[in-house]
Structure formats: structure tokens, C-alpha cells
Amino acid sequence: MSDNKKRLAVFCSGTGSNFKALFHAIIERELPAEIVLCLSNRAQCGAMDFAREYGIEAIHLSEKQFATHDEFALAMLDALRERQIDMILLAGYLRKIPDAVVAAYAEKIVNIHPALLPQFGGHGMYGMRVHEAVIASGETRSGATVHFVNEEYDKGRIIMQNHVPVLPGDTAETLAERVLRCEHRLYPAALEKLLAEQP
Ligand code: GAR
After folding, report:
1. Which of 39, 112, 159 for mutating ligand 1's site (highest number of atoms within 8 Å of CB)?
2. Mean per-residue pLDDT over the chain, rounded
3. Does this model's pTM top 0.85?
4. H-assigned helices in 125-171
5. pLDDT tens digits, 134-178
6. Residue 32: is it exposed, middle or buried by C-beta count within 10 angstroms (0-12/13-18/19+)?
7. Are the C-beta atoms of residues 93 and 62 closer than 8 Å to each other?
8. Alpha carbon nearest to ligand 1 atom 16, residue
9. Do residues 4 and 30 touch, judged by C-beta distance below 8 A?
10. Could you give all domains of the chain from N- to C-terminal order, each with its CATH number?
11. Looking at the annotation, which residues are catalytic?
12. How many CB atoms within 10 Å of residue 42?
């Protein structure tokens, strides 16, 4: 690994299709970064399988493994520091990042959200619930947002957005598929922008 490559951790809870899109984009676009860690609150999921298949270290870290929230936060921080992680990319990670980790990695933690923030974000708004809410609202546009993570759900500074139409007859599932395809283009583009801006 060359010295100026950023060491990335990707946090996931599920399929990990955004993780895969990021991984392939880094290689194909020769971005100055390397995913060195996949961290998940689930021992088994698509993202963890992908990491193991591609020789990326996969760590299962769940709050349930610890007596207190502080111990959990400390373990997460230790795991990141031991591996000299420069930046954390949340890719379908459905847990809140402990405040101590957010403070230690200010503007170094990035999330992708499957809607046009600041709308349709916040606590409990993840996955299919977001698309159900968009359809129920009658909006004709949705999309995806890449943003920095702060102490509040989906409230950090927006880095990049892209939109897709909500079509007549869309269900949450058909909209989710369209938004996910948009995410797979947006997240690598946002990472590329961030890396270009990094010292
Ligand atoms: C993605 O749509 C992502 O935006 C969403 O979970 C999905 C994960 O898919 N994240 C959130 O809703 C966070 N609030 P993936 O595991 O296939 O990347």
C-alpha cells in the first residue's frame, strides 16, 4: 500500500451492495484509498461475506457484547485506532455511531441515506420505511444523499445528492431499487470528491 492512501473502514448491517460499489470503484478508478476493515453489528450478512471473500478484515462488533454503552464505544474506537483508520463509510449501517466515536472522527464519518435529506431522515427512517414514507407523501422526486455524520441522525453536512423520479404506480420496492442504483453511482462519486479534497 502506498503511503498516501487513506485507510477506510466500511460499516454495514446488511447486503452491502453500497460496500461492493465502493470497493470496485476504488480499484477501477484507482482512488487513493483502501478498504481495510468491514465492521458490522451482525456476525453474518452479505457485507461480511463479501469482505471475507475479498480478504478484507471483517469484525463483528455489537453493543450486546458489552455491559455498557461506554465500553462498546471504547471498543469501537480501539478497533479503529489499532488499524489507523482515516475515514469511516457507513453503508447500510443501521445503528447509531457512539458520540465518542463521532467526536474522535469529526467530519471523517460519512453516511449514505436513501432519500433527499433533510426530508425523510431521522431516527427510525431507514431502508424500506424511507421509501414507504416518500410514496405516502406524494412526492414526485426522491434520491440519495451522502452526508457527514454528527451526533444527530441524518443531520450532518450534506456532501452530495442525486435524485430519481417517483413514478406513478411505484411501490416502496420499485422505488428502493431505483434509489439503490442511484446510490451505487453517488457514493463512489462522493468518495472521489472527498479524497480529492483531503490533504
Ligand atoms: C441503502 O439503501 C442505504 O441507503 C440504506 O440501507 C440500504 C443498504 O443497502 N441506509 C439507510 O437507510 C441508513 N439510514 P446495502 O446494504 O445494499 O448497501
Report:
1. 112
2. 96
3. yes
4. 128-137
5. 999 999 999 999 999 999 999 999 999 999 999 999 999 999 999
6. middle
7. no
8. 16
9. no
10. 1-105 (3.40.50.170), 113-199 (3.40.50.170)
11. 113
12. 15
